[in-house]
Amino acid sequence: MGVNLKDLIPPEAKVVLDDLRVLRGKIVVVDGYNALYQFLAAIRGPDGSPLMDSSGRITSHLSGLFYRTINLVEEGIKPVYVFDGNPPELKIKELERRKALREEAAKKYEEAVKEGDLEAARRYAMMSSKLTSDMVEEAKRLLKVMGIPWVQAPAEGEAQAAFMVRRGDAYASASQDYDSLLFGSPRLVRNLTISGKRKLPRKDAYVEVKPEVIELSKLTEKLGITREQLIDIGILLGTDYNPEGFEGIGPKTALTLIRTYGSIEKIPKGYLRTREEVDVVKIKNYFLHPPVTAEYKLEWIEPDQKGIVEVLVKDHDFNEERVKNAVERLSKAYKEFLKGRQLGLDQWFKKSS
């Protein structure tokens, strides 16, 4: 879910990218779980069924990860993926809620298939997407043979991504969620892994989805608040650590309350109604001081065609010709980076630990 700050983002704090080459030479830390869930939801058949190999194992996430990452590298972007570790205790209730929603959606999917309602079947199938630990490990294995670095976060991947950007090891974090802004990422790229034409739910119409870059400093400046106050607004609206937020408080009201009283702790209790007790101080402290690691190395190496064929073709029945053609594209993009030298090899092979 994540916090929804969409209605609070002023135009001055956001740049819509018509061309991904604007990010050429930039290291972008992609929220791995977020991206894999997007691929699981989007890459499906007309009835909502995911791609599978001959053993019945889902491969939609691998297909999306493989081809979309190649597209990014061809645009000159240096992606690094970060994966969630152990979820904080604050998030347990939200994870249980998501599990229940997936299970309910799975039941509705079966009903829709029986009734022949393909539109509903696809919608419920997307909602029932489940990412297993085996699927994540396969994604990491694929990235390794592609020569793309990945980082294992101790806890929240978006917190780790924000840390890496603040540290200067990357230009921006990339996710559909806005949480990395609360974790202090100076820049957030949205729609990086889902740009292109997308069908509107329940409508026979498509919209063009373009990547956008949001700058934290411009966001807080235009709203006239600090990052800590942005966290307060997020808590009022609802985060993964208090999903329901506070009753009757929308984006505009939340901003007004924080501007008026300075912090969530100083808002009169009468304004803050919620079904469950919320420890706002504990949530705020988690956003300010999340568990992260500085033990990582960012290194891009030439793709291992044999290894990629092993993972995708031999293990998961991908079309060998298509895979090899894609690997050629990846190798060519890699060599053009080395040949260009306009950014310097030291930037391409940037390492941090």
Automatic annotation (TrEMBL):
Query: EC number(s)?
Result: 3.1.-.-
Q: Which CDD domains match?
A: H3TH_FEN1-Arc, PIN_FEN1
Q: How is the cofactor bound?
A: Binds 2 magnesium ions per subunit. They probably participate in the reaction catalyzed by the enzyme. May bind an additional third magnesium ion after substrate binding.
- XPG N-terminal domain mapped to chain residues: 1-105
SMART domains, sorted: 53EXOc, HhH2, XPGI, XPGN
Domain XPG-I, first and last residues per copy? 144-225
Among Gene3D superfamilies, the record links this protein to:
5' to 3' exonuclease, C-terminal subdomain (1.10.150.20), 5'-nuclease (3.40.50.1010)
Q: What cofactors does the UniProt entry give for this protein?
A: Mg(2+)
Binding, Mg(2+) 2: 177, 179, 240
- 5'-3' exonuclease domain boundaries: 25-299
UniProt keywords (A-Z) are: DNA damage, DNA repair, DNA replication, Endonuclease, Exonuclease, Hydrolase, Magnesium, Metal-binding, Nuclease
**What transmembrane ranges does the database entry give?**
none
Positions annotated to bind Mg(2+) 1: 31, 84, 156, 158
The highest taxon in the source lineage is: Archaea
Give the UniProt record's GO annotations in the biological process aspect.
Answer: DNA repair; DNA replication, removal of RNA primer
* Pfam families with a match to the protein in the record: XPG_I (PF00867), XPG_N (PF00752)
Q: Which GO terms describe its molecular function?
A: 5'-3' exonuclease activity; 5'-flap endonuclease activity; DNA binding; magnesium ion binding
Subunit architecture: Interacts with PCNA. PCNA stimulates the nuclease activity without altering cleavage specificity.
Protein name (database record): Flap endonuclease 1
